[in-house]
Design goal:
This protein has about 190 residues and is mainly alpha-helical. The chain has eleven helices and no strands.
């Protein structure tokens, strides 16, 4: 798989063993989701293994680079620049790892916030990342997200977003997260 060996090398060479370990767990999780929903396993695993490579850059450096390049920032990204890692991960996937698959790049680029009009791959990566979070213990939303995942990707994404917003887990809602939530609401009734 293009760039996957390089993803691990890149993270490990920057002392990001914890990110690589998390990425391997996300790849395992997304493999199960791919099987459940008939998604391309290779694309899913590629996205999972590369989704956090932006973490090689300190948040302040990502913010400074984004400002210098004139990138339009969400207020949540300005206040919490670690949120920019999804954008920088997408960029690094293309530039450093040579990944050209636009569906994979798009999923990596929204794995933290999701986005309205999300593809099945976008949602699968978003969910796998949340189910295999990079914190100790079991995520407090795991049972309800897995229950809804048995119904649809859309329902699982919506229940995660609602849980996160209602419990105060989101420090400052990103515009894309709120737009994704609005986009997902009709699916929760019809799917």
């Amino acid at each position: 798989m293009a760039g996957l060996h390089e993803a691990g090398e890149l993270l490990l060479s920057h002392g990001k063993e914890h990110i690589w370990a998390h990425s391997l767990e996300v790849a395992e999780e997304i493999g199960a989701i791919a099987g459940q929903y008939g998604l391309d396993v290779r694309d899913c695993e590629t996205a999972a293994l590369c989704h956090d490579i932006g973490g090689i850059l300190p948040p302040e450096e990502m913010l400074a680079q984004a400002v210098a390049e004139g990138i339009l920032l969400d207020p949540a990204e300005e206040r919490y620049p670690f949120l920019l890692h999804q954008r920088f991960s997408k960029r690094l996937c293309g530039v450093r790892l040579g990944i050209e698959n636009q569906a994979v790049l798009d999923a990596v680029g929204c794995h933290t916030t999701l986005r309205p009009g999300a593809s099945a791959l976008d949602m699968a990566l978003f969910l796998a990342d949340k189910l295999r979070w990079d914190q100790p213990g079991v995520p407090p939303y795991e049972a309800i997200v897995r229950e809804k995942l048995g119904m649809s990707l859309e329902r699982a994404c919506l229940v995660y977003i609602d849980f996160s917003l209602d419990s105060g887990r989101v420090l400052m809602p990103h515009r894309l997260l709120l737009e994704a939530r609005s986009w997902l609401i009709p699916f929760s009734v019809s799917s």
